[in-house]
Amino acid sequence: MSSVSKDSVLHQFHNAYGYQATGVWSAPGRVNLIGEHTDYNSGLCLPVALEQRTLVAVALRDDQTVRIHSRQSDETYVGAVGEIGAGWAAYPTAVLWSLAREGMTVGGLDLVIDSSVPVGAGLSSSAALTCSVALAVNDLQGASLTRDQLVQVCIRAENDGVGAPTGGMDQTIAMFAKPSTALLLDCQDGSIEHIPFDLRDAGFELLVIDTRVKHSLADGQYGLRRTQCTDAAALLGITSLREATAEQAESLSDPILRARARHVVTEINRTLSAAELLRIRRFGDIGSLLNSSHASLRDDFEVSCNELDVAVTAARLGGAVAARMTGGGFGGSAIALMRAGKSAAVTASICEAFTARTWQPPRFLHVAPGGSATRL
After folding, report:
1. Residue 228 — left, alpha, or beta (φ > 0 → left; ψ -120 to 50 → alpha)?
2. Rounded to whole angstroms, how far apart are CA atoms 98 and 104?
């Protein structure tokens, strides 16, 4: 794929529609360091914005027509304002629908999408798209929605418009990330704290391992996990599993609900511990927390897969301090934390393990914590 840049997406817009876009906006993908499946349980998570971003070139129209061209699919969607499209077009059109529900007067527009965030890799390509579109339309319409409000607009677009039951982590990091930091998000009250995460300065590298196994939040399994967590909380008589103790989780008689609750309770504690270690720059000491997180996601939450487990094991054998799956699971990506200079050995170990199983080699992305959604 050719490079994704402001100039390239402006060129694509002109080719698609025959005139110049008003501007270009972008939002980052994200990788979650730790705190998986905790956001919709009012828990804590610790995501990092990626340098890989989704860009949208946009211009308003004087009618109610919406035209959206995606470089990734090489298709153009045409519909009316308020309609929610199918497939990839569901995400940007659901944002327009959600903005209207927020009280914004939304007219027609022309839009071109290009992205360097891998789709289906569990790196929040959907939130990168929805947040870039929401910020663009908010700016072009002269609206005054705050970033907090735009986060809620994008959550509603995905949950109610698309039918993908995400939590709020992805949209929050896209709107509030800062370079060289991780974002500690408390999903109970929405508070955030920027935690120092300057990998290079600390002598570490973070590698994303995209297994190329298709990841989808709309296939039912993610929603099932949410329902199981809600059911577990209801049986315990609490609002969410954020309020549960380890003893309460173990008291559940249903073995599946007990395991799901155990993961959430222990993952929240691991996230708190990781944040505390990063505050005092003890990067290497978070390794055991990341490794335990993967075991919990694999065994208690049951959202891993063979490819993720092999990637994690091979990364550790190759010299990584720690590795775990990241994102919603059922495919997608893993992360490996390693000391600087170890990435070649780690990637070689993973590729060898995949080749031995006749699997397609994974893709690798080096993480450099990036900034939030913005107009370029």
Report:
1. alpha
2. 9
The answer to whether 360 and 212 are in contact (CB under 8 A) is yes
206 in helix, strand or coil? Answer: strand
Question: How many whole angstroms separate alpha carbon 269 and alpha carbon 291?
Answer: 14
pTM score, whole prediction: 0.91
- Token pair belonging to 93: 């059109």
Token output for 152: 């809620």
| pLDDT higher than 80, residue 215 | no
C-alpha span between 108 and 121 (Å, rounded): 31
Whether 309 and 324 have beta carbons less than 8 Å apart is answered as no
For residue 178, pLDDT beyond 60: yes
3-state SS, 307-373, equals HHHHHHHHHHHCCCCEEEEECCCCCCEEEEEEECCCHHHHHHHHHHHHHHCCCCCCEEEECCCCCCC
Question: If you search the block for the tokens 């004087």, which residue do you land on?
Answer: 62
Averaged over 347-357, what is the pLDDT? 98
* Residue 156 to residue 95: CA distance in whole angstroms: 8
Helices 90-101 + 125-140 axis angle, to 10: 50
Quick check: is 170 catalytic?
A: yes
Distance, in Å, from the CA atom of 40 to the CA atom of 159, rounded to the nearest integer, reads 12
- Cα gap 142→180, rounded to integer Å: 31
> Per the residue annotation, which of 39, 110, 114, 170 is the catalytic one?
170
- Between CA 24 and CA 59 the distance in angstroms is 9
CA dihedral 159, 162, 164, 168 (to 10 degrees): -40
CA distance 56 to 74: 14
In three-state secondary structure terms, 182 is strand
DSSP track, 45-84: E-EEEEEEEEEEEEEE-SSSEEEEEETTTTEEEEEETT--
Residue 135's pLDDT is what? 98
